[in-house]
Amino acid sequence: LKRLTVPAIRRRKGGEPLVMLTAYTVRTAQLLDPHCDMLLVGDSLGQVIYGLPSTVPVTLEMMAAHGAAVVRGSFHAVVVIDMPFGSYEGSPQQAFESAAYLLKQTGAAAVKLEGGEAMAPTVRFLSERGIPVMGHVGLTPQAVNVLGGYGARGKDEAEAAKIVADATAVADAGAFAVVIEGVMEPIAIRITDTVACPTIGIGASARCDGQVLVAEDMLGLFERTARFVKRYDDMAGRISAAAETYAAEVRARSFPGPEQIYPSRG
Ligand code: KIV
Ligand code: NA
């Protein structure tokens, strides 16, 4: 099984839906890789792994460390790494330095960055210099301090038109795919029907060219989740139950049992 490539992902526009999940660690990457076309090292790791209040404090060094682990744990999916807040917005040159650092440190194939029309020149700058870029429009969590929260976007016509313009701008600038997060469904359909690259939905529409979820959310491992998360498992419940059983057995001296100890040689 050879690793998929960015051009192969690009060619899936309008075809079989693209499957993407986040991964931050080697074991999760190993388990998800056979089922996914792309693994996203999302800056959502700020909340999910580090307990931070938003993605704003996430650093390049954190993304590089987790990105390297995910590349080591996968051999099939295209690994995409989020550019963290503050590492790319200043200028295309700043973005290139940050993105090159991430790709050199990790071996990942592509980066993702948030933003629309304002980021289009940066998307073009990176794409023309050997760095494939995935866009991200609609609900962009790094802009939480401007947006004021994580509610769905595009509820009035002006905002809807702006989101469509944003997606079109990054797609026209050379993005190989664009994530559409947390928007009214007609916006996601309009974008999907308009742009030349695949759209990856999260809280968007089944009509998108692919879907992404935070793995911990769909596994039932994270406490707060949005309406758009479907729970495919209750891992939090299963981990709690296992810890409870272990604690009871330790207290009852029934663990370790005969199979877990080294008996004397005599
Ligand atoms: O950081 C992340 O997990 C993401 C996805 C939700 C698209 O950007
Ligand atoms: Na992200």
Automatic annotation (TrEMBL):
<dbReference type="Pfam" id="PF02548">
    <property type="entry name" value="Pantoate_transf"/>
</dbReference>
<feature type="active site" description="Proton acceptor">
    <location>
        <position position="181"/>
    </location>
</feature>
<keyword id="KW-0963">Cytoplasm</keyword>
<comment type="pathway">
    <text>Cofactor biosynthesis; (R)-pantothenate biosynthesis; (R)-pantoate from 3-methyl-2-oxobutanoate: step 1/2.</text>
</comment>
<dbReference type="InterPro" id="IPR040442">
    <property type="entry name" value="Pyrv_kinase-like_dom_sf"/>
</dbReference>
<feature type="binding site">
    <location>
        <position position="112"/>
    </location>
    <ligand>
        <name>3-methyl-2-oxobutanoate</name>
    </ligand>
</feature>
<dbReference type="InterPro" id="IPR003700">
    <property type="entry name" value="Pantoate_hydroxy_MeTrfase"/>
</dbReference>
<keyword id="KW-0479">Metal-binding</keyword>
<feature type="binding site">
    <location>
        <position position="43"/>
    </location>
    <ligand>
        <name>Mg(2+)</name>
    </ligand>
</feature>
<comment type="function">
    <text>Catalyzes the reversible reaction in which hydroxymethyl group from 5,10-methylenetetrahydrofolate is transferred onto alpha-ketoisovalerate to form ketopantoate.</text>
</comment>
<keyword id="KW-0460">Magnesium</keyword>
<keyword id="KW-0808">Transferase</keyword>
<dbReference type="InterPro" id="IPR015813">
    <property type="entry name" value="Pyrv/PenolPyrv_kinase-like_dom"/>
</dbReference>
<feature type="binding site">
    <location>
        <position position="82"/>
    </location>
    <ligand>
        <name>Mg(2+)</name>
    </ligand>
</feature>
<feature type="binding site">
    <location>
        <position position="114"/>
    </location>
    <ligand>
        <name>Mg(2+)</name>
    </ligand>
</feature>
<comment type="subunit">
    <text>Homodecamer; pentamer of dimers.</text>
</comment>
<feature type="binding site">
    <location>
        <position position="82"/>
    </location>
    <ligand>
        <name>3-methyl-2-oxobutanoate</name>
    </ligand>
</feature>
<protein>
    <recommendedName>
        <fullName>3-methyl-2-oxobutanoate hydroxymethyltransferase</fullName>
        <ecNumber>2.1.2.11</ecNumber>
    </recommendedName>
</protein>
<feature type="binding site">
    <location>
        <begin position="43"/>
        <end position="44"/>
    </location>
    <ligand>
        <name>3-methyl-2-oxobutanoate</name>
    </ligand>
</feature>
<comment type="similarity">
    <text>Belongs to the PanB family.</text>
</comment>
<keyword id="KW-0566">Pantothenate biosynthesis</keyword>
